[in-house]
Amino acid sequence: MKRTLIIILLLAGLMAIIQSCTSGKNALKQGDYYQAVSLAANRLRQNPDHKKSREVLKAGYQLAIDYLEQSARNQITSNANFKWKNAVQSYEQINSLYEQIRTSPGALKIIPNPVNKYKELNEVKGKAAEESYEAGIQAMLKNTRDDAKRAYFLFTDANALSPGYRESIEMMEQAKFNATIKVVVEPTFSNYQNWNFEPVVFGVNPSQFVKFYTPREAEDAGLTRVDHIVKVSVNGYNENRPSTSNRTDNFTDSVKVSEKTVNNQKIPVYEKITAKMITYEKVITSRGSITLYIRDANSGADLRNSDIVTEERWSDRWATCSGDLRAIPEATRKLCGTREPNMNRDFLVTRTKRELDNKLANALSAFYSGY
Description:
50% of the residues lie in helices and 26% in strands. By secondary structure, the chain is of the alpha/beta class. The protein folds into two domains: 2-177, no CATH class; 181-371, Double Stranded RNA Binding Domain (2-Layer Sandwich). Strands 1, 2, 3, 4, 5 and 6 form a six-stranded mixed β-sheet that branches. Helix 1 packs antiparallel against helix 2 (33-46), helix 2 (33-46) packs parallel to helix 4 and helix 4 (83-102) packs antiparallel against helix 6. The longest helix has 28 residues, at 2-29.
């Protein structure tokens, strides 16, 4: 078994090597020089003398550098949107190959002086940050929620390209605030079960551009605009009285009781046995219902007004048995002599509330996930 496992692992390793070599050669043939060089450098890190990877690296490295440098220059001289950000990607790929070769002794033998573009990268990153920042400002000026979302990501890019660039962090926060749907959650009215669904609502995180407030939090934040009002109303909880049903089963079997000798051979003697089993089942069901209201805070129009319902069930069994219990299958026999069970207090209440919590959370997530 151990030997078989070793053979399987060796074959898997061999297949990975073959796949790596094939992928590298194919990438080179298809003009994906970056991928070809990256695969070859990685293979030579594992096997410094791998012939095909050495050939791919030797043939493809300069092609990759020339291609990426030309791509960066073409972007910079173009009138394309976000040309500096695209140039950043090309220089980052050149630097990635530089680091891959430096950490691969086998690759370093083939390319002893890999090229890096760290100086150029720093320069284009600064221009790319400016490019994203200015695009973010223009998006903010359009004063729509969708444009505020776009501005947020543009300011995020600017800050990632050049940490702390101008007021990118402050503008990022402002753009996110403008893009965020502000939802005030009205408190749940008191109810017989003392159910409170506010923790469920505030525990939902469907989108980074949706924020739930209590009325007090909205007031303290000085919100000049509220978009939605959410309210959960408890319709009620009902638990039925226990219902009991029963079923009677008769079992027949035979058991060995002795032996007799016939023609000098011992033959077992069997006796027929019977048993009767009455199985009882007690069932209690429950039903809980709430209504989720979501309305537009400005127009008052209902955005959602629907009931959320769950039905739960508790059941247990016991049995009375008579006759020879050996006739009853062992898996069933364990019920014999058990007492009538009673449901733990609040079992269904707790289970119903938990399921309503889950369904409410799913409903809110589904509604706000598109925001």
